[in-house]
C-alpha cells in the first residue's frame, strides 16, 4: 500500500457533532436514500447519532487524521448540520467556497466560526461566497453536488436540483475546474440527489456506480476521463450504491492513506474490490447507521481541508 501523500487526500477535516439529530423532512422529497424516523423515539435517535459522530472522530484521529470537531445544538433548526461538506469546500492554494443550499432549513448550517477557524489555522487566500444566489434559486451543494479530482482539476457533477448548471460554470471559472456533468438514476429510475453518493475519487482509484449513469456514451466518457487521469475505476453496482459504498473519502493518515466509509458500505464491497482499494489505501469503516437514516453517510459527514497549515502539526 502506498504511503505517498497527495493533494487529493487531506490530512485534516471538519466534522459537526449533533446534539438533537433527526432526519430532515424537507429533504426527503428528492433524497431516496433517506428513511423516516420514529418521532416517538427522537431522544434515542439523537443520542445514537451523537455517539456515532464522537466515535467516528476518535477513529479518524487514531488513524492520524486531524479532526476539527464542532458542536451543533440547533436540533430541529439544523437537522442536517452533521453534513458540513455541502455548505463549504476548501482547495489547494488557499481557496475556500461557501455554497447556496437547495433546502431552506439547510441554509442555517453555515457557520462563521468554521470559516474563522480555517483562517486562523490554515493559509486562506480568499473566500468566495455563493450563498446570496439562493435568492435567484441557483443552488450548488458543495462536495455533495461535485466530486473533485483535485489533481486533474475536474468537477464531476450529477445533474440535479442541487447542482445548477449556471452556478456550476461560475464556480468552475472561479476555481479553475473542468465541469463534467452527467445524468443519473437509482434502481427505481429516480435521479440521484448528490454526486458523492455514487462516486468517490481517490489518489489512484475511483469508485463509480457506472450503471447509475443513464447515458452509456456519457458513462464511457466519464470512465475514460478518470482513467486518463491515472485512476483505476472500481465499478459499484446499484445495490452497493444503495448501501452508501460510493459515499467514501480518502484521507491522509499517520501511516498512509485511508479510505473512510461506513461499516454498511464496507460490508457491501466484494473481496476483489477491497483488495483493489487496499493496494492504495487502508479501508477505515465507521459505524454510522443512525446518521445514514438522513440519507448521507461518511463522506457527507466530512469537510476535507485542502489548505496548508499555518504551523507544523505535531
From TrEMBL:
GO terms for molecular function: hydrolase activity. Pfam families: DDAH_eukar. InterPro entries: Amdntrnsf_FN0238. Keywords: Hydrolase. PANTHER family: AMIDINOTRANSFERASE. This is Citrulline utilization hydrolase CtlX. It comes from Ottowia flava. The gene is ctlX.
